[in-house]
Amino acid sequence: MSVSLFWAKGQGYCRRKASILFFKRPFVIRTQRPLISFSFDDFPESALRTGGAILKHFGLAGTYYASLGLMGKDTATGRIFGPADLGVVCEQGHELGCHTFSHCHAWDTATRAFEEAIIDNRSALHDLLPGVEFQTFSYPISGPRPLTKLRAAEHFLCCRGGGQKFNVGTTDLNNLSAYFLEKTRHRIELVKDLIDHNRQALGWLIFATHDISDNPTPYGCVPGFFEEVVRYAVASGANILPVVEALKALRSARM
């Protein structure tokens, strides 16, 4: 291994650890029924028009993490939502979540600039959909630097990262774990195994991806695969809710 690659891997490891260890908001998951949420980062058009249609077929809703500064643009995850799509999300019972205004890198962006991008995204949403609020957040691109994690927490009920695992026992509302479907390379047995483990552990599994297309980007998946995941999730008996509704259900169960 070259010195540069060794350094890059070491730096990545330290960043991941820092994102996990500092400024936690502990939350104990106690539920008699496992929870699953489906979320889409960046909110490409296909996530709603194809992914949303699949969720609707099963009577379900998901969470769409939007960067309003990307609206209507072609990006690495495909064509991003248009203004009308925001209203459709709300009409169909989905949740709109925040992803910063300009899709800021959660580690490389200075904390002050990152927080300003959160505020800018909220302001843009108010202009387009008065009365609609972002309640949950997804960190773009990477785990957050510690101070960014601290500041983001002041704006949302919970913030979501990655990690390729489900949430069980004591979790961190400032950096909830999620499982990105595209990282399986369409190996459905990996996803089914995870759903089974989440059911047995009575945990909260948050799925994440980007576009849903017959010709997906490296960050998305094909409709058939996504539909099979949703079907197996339903069959598992889990309570399937958008992220904010899942959190509210967990809080109600603690009362």
Walk me through the structure:
The protein has 255 residues and is an alpha/beta fold. The chain is 42% helix and 19% strand. It has helices at 3-21, 45-57, 83-91, 111-128, 146-153, 188-201, 223-235, 243-254; strands at residues 26-28, 35-42, 63-66, 74-75, 78-79, 95-98, 136-138, 158-163, 170-172, 176-180, 204-209, 239-240. The strands form three sheets. Strands 2, 3, 6, 7, 8, 10, 11 and 12 form an eight-stranded parallel beta sheet that branches. A two-stranded antiparallel ribbon has the order 1-9. Strands 4-5 form a two-stranded antiparallel ribbon. Strand 7, helix 5 (146-153) and strand 8 form a beta-alpha-beta unit. The chain starts with a helix and ends with a helix. The model has no long low-confidence stretch (mean pLDDT 94).
CATH class: Alpha Beta
Relative helix content: 40-55%
> Largest beta sheet, briefly?
8 strands, parallel
* Proportion of residues in extended strands: 15-25%
- CA radius of gyration: 17 Å
Domains, number: 1
Shape: globular
Query: How many H/I helical runs?
Result: 8
Can you say what the CATH homologous superfamily is? Glycoside hydrolase/deacetylase
N to C succession of SSEs = HEEHEEEHEHEHEEEHEHEH
Number of strands: 12
In whole angstroms, the N-to-C terminal distance is 53 Å
Low-confidence stretches: none
Oligomer: single chain
Query: Which class of secondary structure composition applies to the elements?
Result: alpha/beta
CATH topology: TIM Barrel
| Mean pLDDT metric | 94
CATH architectural group: Alpha-Beta Barrel
